[in-house]
What we know:
Blueprint: E1 3-7, H1 13-25, E2 30-33, E3 44-47, H2 53-81, H3 87-93, H4 95-120
Antiparallel strand pairs: 1-3, 2-3
Amino acid sequence: MSKLLLNLRNVPDDEAADVRAFLDANRIAWYETRPGPFGISMGGIWVKHDQDVPEAKRLMADYQAGRRTRVRAEHEAARREGREETFAMLLRERPGWVLLRVAGILLLLALMALPGYLLWR
């Protein structure tokens, strides 16, 4: 029976490609399901055979530990060098995008407060 190794919800493409590659390199049979058309169900990477699941999970744990260390180091280096994306940087680079989202947030807050305001008045 197949077992889910990696749910692909919010998984970067490079990470999914790395998982596919290490499964192939270790000759572990796997298959991938694609996301549903409405975004309700996300895809996944599945291990086909039960006897391969412990090895796949061990490889996945090793990969995630290495990736965690590498990504944290890259993030820290970006922060030290001033390349880390900040709100101010995003506002300078894409002001329309930011202001549209801020306006949407304010609109939602107003709509949520409206029933209480109407009842209190």
